[in-house]
Amino acid sequence: MAIGPDIIIGTDGPDYLVAGDDGGVMYGLDGDDTLDGLGGNYYNDYILYGGRGDDLYIVDGGDAAVEDVDSGIDKVVTFVSGYVLPANIENLSIAEGFLVYGNDLDNLITGNAMDETLYGMRGDDVLEGGLRNDTLYGGRGDDRLIGYGGDGYERDLLIGGRGADTFVVVTESDGGFGSVVRDFKRQQGDKIEIAGFSATSMYTLNTTKNLGGRADRLDTGIYADDVLVATILDRSITGADIIG
Fold this sequence. Notes:
Shape: elongated
Radius of gyration: 21 Å
Order of helices and strands: EEEEEEEEEEEEEEEEEEEEEEEE
Strand content: 35-45%
């Protein structure tokens, strides 16, 4: 990390602080601040201190967001693939890149219109992949994984991990492949939630071989009005496992 000489200090109110060309340090102080590390050279990095308030950090390169415990509900927008959400920051959104990791808090992590992989890690997280082919890993905790089937051959892979997870499958009536739920575990309290169809839609379950791409296993397809909305890699799914 190449930290330059800039020192940018906000006020006790809401500030919008923008990086310069030389790298350095930003202090938001109190208030709901935006600390924008994109303004300078990609290779000259900033350390961003939000302070108290609900702060927004915009980072690229090696910018580092620093937040104290219980200082507000904060969010990072990252342009970096492989980004790991720092401690004490709750929410994360991908502007560019394809791989991000949460932290030990209850995170809200949202993807973009590209193929991406989201890891919630610990905490009760909400992961929302967006369009195209996404992979969502909840990790430990009672997580909510939101997958969009997309158009045509696009398909999201939802992996809850430990905890009572809710797999939300959202799809349009376009005949796409829907989402794939890899590790549904009724004994942990997992549920399937279907969204995007009308309240009058008819849901059916169909157990068949190789629906999820594995020739040696039986999978369950969930259909809404004869459209495949989700494939569950489990043959024991019943209507009691589905909500919404």
